[in-house]
Amino acid sequence: MAYAYEPLDLTKQTIRLLKILPRTHDEVISLLLEVVDLQGIQGGYDAISYEWGPESNQQLISVNGKDLMIRHNIWRFLQHCRDIEFAHQHHERLWIDAICIAQQNVQERNHQVMQMSEIFRGARQVIAWLGTASIETNVPPNAYECIYDLHHGRTMSMSGPKPSHEAEARWR
């Protein structure tokens, strides 16, 4: 059965947060999704920033016991977190726009977009998911060094080729 989103109260600052459940005998990634008051949860969740990736490559997950299809890139993030028990050790609650917003509900999506700066500001931390490393990874070689430098307050100069307009457009 397909997952149906519980409606948000659009007169308030409510959001959905997810929790990754531990691996079971079933390989399907399972999540719990709950509605919370944004003002009451400040610093009690991590927000994820990532590349959406192509819509054509979707994977099945379970949300509150119901089926939901998500894009492959965020499925890989969830799989990675579940497999290393990352979410259970450090990140009790996560906010991921593709899952926490009912994307088919235009009114809700617009409401949530208006709150995005506050959602990211209110997070304990924002995690930038660049994907898994592979021979096909399309990340400039110095990207990880640049992120490390920025995190440690160092200034940096971009040497090497600049990303193409197509590559820049893939990042949200």
UniProtKB/TrEMBL annotation:
Domain of life: Eukaryota
InterPro entries: HET, HetReg/Transcr_Mod
Protein name according to UniProt: Heterokaryon incompatibility domain-containing protein
A Pfam family that the UniProt record links to this protein: HET
Source organism (scientific name): Recurvomyces mirabilis
Domain Heterokaryon incompatibility residue range list: 45-137
